[in-house]
Design goal:
Length: 577
């Protein structure tokens, strides 16, 4: 028996035989062609691109509403439809007189080299996307449409060095028990896909593949981040009991959606959902959410397409409002740049994109971009409970400038004869440490504050949120973070301004007792986290949570905080112990 420890990225436990997904060794020899063959090769290339795109369209419709997965494939589709791909590959065929296969491989080698030369895991991940697209085009060219993984017939644990998006999307989820991979972190494709399929996954396990054989028995513990290879019978029995407990837990979660997010002593928490497109509202409502606490509107903007018009914005917001049936819709204005989409693909690279001209800063510099959105938010507020949320506010100056723009939008709409509500609440994300420090000043001029721990952790601890090399330092439980959050919550209590928390921390059940204990009464989480968070809320009392929060406030390290929170969670939800 051998135990490997990695990063737990999707909860649950599985026991089963392992299926080793070989890393595809791709080697495309340089095949010279005659000048007369050029037209034929270019035609083959065109056909292959069409069929690769068709394959992607099929995959997209097979993935249905899973929007993280479809987002990955939509990006692949964009690369495949980019005229640069066919033009450059066609030019290589013509100029170097080589086969379409070689020209395609040459194009992607170059692209991957460029991505890899940037020392950033985000770009490393994009390199793996490029390899995936290349594989698809080459398969279409060579007439080999075999998907190794699609042949599975018995349920197995998929083990890989790093799973490619299409490998996971084409698999039959009935034949998959869990995923394990040697590399990756919480933002890797394996993690995203496992979570969206609801399967346990442990990534970042290091060189485990060399110690596995096809058919080896493994236990995957997605709660603790462990993989046990060749477990002894006692371990298997122990984990079988844990699995039964986890199954019961899943059934309980399915029932909890219809109940309020209310503590045992009667305190109601407004538990809302984070969305990226209007269609996501359906999953929030299905999961039993109380509205949308964060609409990440950057996704209205699609790279390579014209910017959304004012009417596109209005349509998206009104469509979300209709599905929300009276529940609030918190529209966050464009949060462009760094880890998110940028409106200027050709803008010169900045040395520190996370600290650069992005998000609200960029919007304030570009009224042409910002105004249509602000006008649309105001127009939509006539159709339902819209709240306007400004991201990346560092202090009063940013807030005032943003509110001035909003006022200009209001005046222009009124002049044009539109009805515009005066009541729309305006809030700011507290995600830059300076905003947390001056939260009392901000509270005087806003209707609500929304703590964005994803960025607040990054900027407070100086740890890149998408860099897997420093993922172990990215700690929402850091004592400094707890103090900042507590301070902002206190500002809310003192000023009467409502405070919510919409970072990933709110969706991790480990922190639920702590956040409620700190005084938060509004949380916004991804739709899939709503039932689990709600279940914990329904099992605690405010007094018990205050005790946990008071204890954590005295801790001197994140390890102490996490140990205490794990103990509490284990008592509240034994299946997650
Ligand atoms: C945050 O920063 O915590 C947040 C919720 O916003 P995003 O993850 O979109 O930056
Ligand atoms: Mg943020």
């Amino acid at each position: 028996m051998e135990i490997y420890t990695g990063v737990p990225v999707s909860p649950g436990v599985a026991i089963g035989a392992v299926f080793l997904l070989a890393t595809e060794e791709r080697s495309v020899p340089e095949r010279p062609i005659a000048a007369e063959e050029v037209a034929g090769e270019i035609e083959r290339l065109g056909d292959a691109l069409v069929s690769a795109r068709e394959e992607l369209t099929d995959l997209l419709s097979a993935t249905g509403v899973e929007n993280e997965i479809s987002a990955i494939f939509s990006t692949h589709e964009m690369v495949l439809t980019d005229p640069k791909l066919s033009t450059e590959v066609g030019a290589t065929i013509q100029d170097r007189l080589v086969s379409a296969e070689f020209a395609v491989a040459h194009f992607f080698d170059d692209l991957v080299r460029r991505f890899q030369s940037v020392e950033d895991p985000y770009f490393a991940q994009r390199a793996s996307d490029m390899r995936d697209i290349e594989r698809r085009v080459l398969r279409a060219l060579m007439g080999d449409r075999r998907e190794e993984i699609a042949k599975l017939s018995d349920p197995v644990v998929i083990a890989a060095h790093d799973l490619l998006p299409s490998q996971t999307a084409s698999l039959d989820s009935r034949c998959t028990l869990a995923f394990i991979s040697e590399v990756g972190g919480p933002t890797s494709h394996t993690a995203i896909i496992a979570r969206s399929l609801g399967m346990p996954a442990v990534v970042g396990l290091g060189e485990i593949m060399a110690h596995l054989a096809d058919g080896s028995l493994v236990i995957v513990d997605g709660n603790r981040g462990q993989v046990i290879v060749d477990p002894d019978p006692a371990q298997v029995q122990r984990y079988q009991r844990i699995m039964q407990g986890f199954e019961r837990y899943r059934l309980e979660l399915a029932r909890v959606r219809d109940y309020p997010a209310e503590t045992r002593d009667g305190h109601v928490i407004r538990l809302m959902g984070n969305i990226e497109v209007a269609a996501d509202v359906a999953s929030v409502m299905d999961a039993g959410g109380d509205g949308v606490g964060l609409f990440r509107t950057e996704f209205l903007y699609e790279e390579g397409r014209p910017p959304p018009t004012e009417q596109d914005h209005v349509d998206a917001y009104v469509s979300a409002l209709r599905q929300l049936a009276g529940h609030p819709l918190t529209v966050r204005t464009f949060d462009f740049g760094a880890d998110k989409i940028t409106p200027d693909a050709d803008a010169p690279a900045e040395p520190n994109p996370f600290l650069g001209s992005r998000s609200l800063r960029l919007c304030l510099e570009r009224p042409g971009l910002f105004m249509p959105q602000l006008r649309a938010i105001l127009r939509a507020s006539g159709y339902g409970a819209v709240r306007c949320l400004f991201p990346m506010v560092s202090g009063l100056r940013d807030l005032r400038r943003a509110k001035e723009m909003l006022e200009k939008a209001r005046v222009s709409l009124r002049t044009e004869g539109h009805y515009v509500s005066e009541e729309m609440p305006v809030g700011v994300m507290v995600e830059i440490p300076s905003a947390a420090i001056v939260a009392d000043l901000l509270a005087v001029e806003v209707d609500f504050l929304s703590i964005g721990t994803n960025d607040l952790v990054q900027y407070s601890l100086a740890v890149d949120r998408v860099n897997e090399r420093v993922a172990h330092l990215y700690q929402p439980a850091h004592p400094a973070m707890l103090r900042l959050v507590r301070q902002v919550v206190q500002v809310g209590l003192d000023s009467g301004v409502s405070v919510s928390l919409c970072g990933e921390m709110a969706g991790d059940v480990l922190y639920t007792i702590l956040l409620v204990g700190m005084g938060l009464r509004e949380l916004s989480v991804s739709a899939r986290s709503i039932p689990a968070v709600k279940q914990v809320i329904r099992r605690i009392t405010v007094e018990q949570s205050r005790e946990a929060a008071a204890w954590c406030a005295t801790a001197t390290s994140h390890e102490e905080v996490l140990t205490r929170l794990r103990e509490s969670l284990g008592e509240l939800v034994p299946a997650l112990a």
